Amino acid sequence: xxxxxxxxxxxxxxxxxxxxxxxxxxxxxxxxxxxxxxxxxxxxxxxxxxxxxxxxxxxxxxxxxxxxxxxxxxxxxxxxxxxxxxxxxxxxxxxxxxxxxxxxxxxxxxxxxxxxxxxxxxxxxxxxxxxxxxxxxxxxxxxxxxxxxxxxxxxxxxxxxxxxxxxxxxxxxxxxxxxxxxxxxxxxxxxxxxxxxxxxxxxxxxxxxxxxxxxxxxxxxxxxxxxxxxxxx
Length: 233
Hints:
Layout: H1 3-23, E1 28-34, E2 52-56, H2 59-62, E3 69-76, H3 79-95, E4 103-110, E5 113-118, E6 122-130, E7 133-138, H4 145-155, H5 160-169, E8 174-179, E9 184-187, E10 192-197, E11 203-213, H6 215-225
Antiparallel strand pairs: 1-2, 1-3, 3-4, 4-11, 5-10, 6-9, 6-11, 7-8, 7-10
């Protein structure tokens, strides 16, 4: 066999092995958002709505080059995620003297990204595994659910600085947090939180520890967002 044929077969084997490796990667449910068009009128209150969903591996997040897109994966722990992050969750529960969470969620997202102000009915702790997130917390307990919806529509296009100033002008207390790797953060049921990440071409990983659903805010959450389908954020 000639030298050129040997080289050809070696290259062919390398290509085959490469595609086998790619095809062998686990596929996840991936959500893709248009950062220039984050919401629509499909729900009562605005929140980020993906322009499409697909099955793909996590490399599509790591290698995202389109800065107009926010690509995200959210997955409740399965056996593989338990094997990878289960000890971390156990250590956090022990360190902060918490109960075992009802469930844990793996979250990975490209940067930059932003998540419109919203609240959750679940009691949640967030651990930042990689990257950082800017978070603005506030409450709207003085408003009824219809007034809260109107408020969210007014602020849906505001970025962090503008939203912070708007809250201050309207006498609403807020707290800004810059979460970095290793930070552990608590979000109470009913806490509105707006999230931004302005780094470019990177990605974040976080783990949610989710606990009880609060009946105090559940009916408001269902009115605002229940019809939007699956939602972990």
